[in-house]
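Interim report, section 4.2 (structural modelling).
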Amino acid sequence: MKDLQGFYEKDKLLNFYRQMYLLRNFEEVAANMYLKGKIGGFTHLYIGQEATGVGAIAALFDKDYVVSAYREHGHALAKGISAKAVMAELFGKQTGCSGGMGGSMHLFDKNVNFMGGYAIVGGSIPIAVGIGFAINYREEELVCACFFGDGAINEGAFNEGLNMAKLYNLPILFICENNLYGMGTGVVRASSVSEIYKRACGFNMPSKAINGMDVIEVYEEILLAVKAIRRGGGPHFIEARTYRFKPHSMADPDRYRTISEIEMWRERDPIEYFSRRLTEQGIADADELKQIKESVEVEVQEAVEFAEQSPEPEWTHLKELVYSE
Amino acid sequence: MDAFKRISLFGIVTMAELTYREALNQALREEMRRDSRVFIIGEEVAYYQGTYKVTQNLLAEFGEQRVVDTPIAEEGIVGTAIGAAMTGLRPVAELMTVNFSLLAMDMIVNHAAKIRLMFNAQVDVPMVIRMPQSAGNQLGAQHSQLFEAYFMHCPGLRVVLPATPADAKGLLKTAIRDNNPVIFLENQSLYSIKGDVPAGEYLLPLGKANVIREGEEITLISYSKMVHECLAAAEELAKDNISAEVIDLRCLNPLDKKTIFDSVKKTRFAIVVNEAWYTGSAGAEIASLINENCFEYLDAPVKRISAYDIPMPYNKNLEQAVLPHKDDIEKVAKRLLMGEELWLKR
Ligand SMILES: Cc1ncc(C[n+]2csc(CCOP(=O)(O)OP(=O)(O)O)c2C)c(N)n1
Ligand SMILES: [Mg+2]
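Predicted structure of the assembly:
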């Protein structure tokens, strides 16, 4: 375990902790709200993968872009969409970050350059290429981080998108969150190359597999990649090895994984692992962490109340949304 | 269901009450037992037992060679099916939902539908692409679409949409034996409905509509889930002594024009209902066929009921407002029969 003392400011570390716990608690509460019928649709939980989203997005500038798939509550919160706006979106309310139009799979907030969750597997990849293209076109020093799952690498969009990104030397960070399954299909049954980062080598793209359960490792690796991209190094590829603790969606019976496999990964819980590190290395004590948790829980409760009390979107408004004037 | 309880050469056809899902599963199982060239290919069809459990237990009976799990690669799935069909197999591809068929549209439209004519009928492409479609479950804009009109627009494809468990079985079995690419559109919201299904060999011809309720004064034409909305509307209309005939088209290609025209000529009023968007819908095609062929029999313009031309919002109330319902059908039927003037004065 790497020593954190002296390398990081305490605030930064506690903020990692706070963010990861925010993602966790937000989704635990959202799952409850789903069971109560307050939230509809599929609802795919990110629980277990928090270190990847938090570590990666912390390594970006505020103005950098993020695109993601449908398991994107965590990315949206980490990028800075408020818990209120995300919860209200899950409730389908007008105050949601997509005005109640998108739902769980389609979060969006232009103010923080969170450019959307997309529910077609692989869909985020070509879109990221376009965002990278625009960044270069305007000669900005920004990066577009593109999140997708291990299942997406087998779609045609992956091949087309990665090739074009490299060909045009675009400032894109591809982050494949390898949680070992695309729905019920294990990576080894879906990809002819099971070490996913190698798939990017065929595009001549710098590529690396990292431990997605360790927020510090994710942060440091992504920081390196992003710096290289900003220097004009073109697209980079990161395979973050992680695990989702919950079923694919709220509708998935989850019969394709063994309990012991899930247990084994739960022992590597990214939040517990990090909190152990913080306390063992004397960076924070249990009380401080408890206080952080409590403040997060208050924030999430307030988000639920906000969502409950918010108005529904209006029919008249809907028709104005189809076309731009 | 009386229509099915007919006497066959071998005695009374035995019925079992099955869900739509079970009826499809039975059809697949029977066809796979009957013909070793039939195989299933798609995402989560084998070990997961099917996303909507339509392929449940087929892996156990037929093994991995005939129930093939794939990566998430719709173009690959359909392409594999085409190649296999061209060389003598009879694939049944499953796409998880119709929304993802767009990623395979090139294989479907540019390849499957064209190969026979383009190569002077030297090969057939005998394959089925099964996929569910529907809206109304708050799945958002990218997961709440109905695409039968896209497929219907393309010559070379058959388009089949069963509305009942018995039809699901009878049409799927025929589709698998058909020598053309068949787009077989199931409806997510129908998987759990129950109905009597004939046991064993039960084949329904493609292109034969079902007059599912007879009536005299107005014809309600639809397919898939909307058949049930039409039946419910007909029930309501009956309370006001209005006798509505309900036609379940079952297939959009081939389209049973005769059944449509005969009914419209009898009732002189027609409403076409589809769950998909209004513009360029299958309903639009059917309404225009009625106008072209039955104009002098009509006492009023053919009406169309559909979803609004709006990408589906997630919000539950708005989603329901976008979609067509039995009340809309009932209201439009009354308005049509009453005449615009009386309706407004009512
Ligand atoms: C094109 C397309 N095909 C199929 C689906 C259905 N589907 C939704 S999520 C999913 C699994 C994706 O797995 P992965 O990319 O590993 O992401 P994870 O769910 O693990 O985050 C599938 C097959 C879809 N949404 N889009
Ligand atoms: Mg995955």
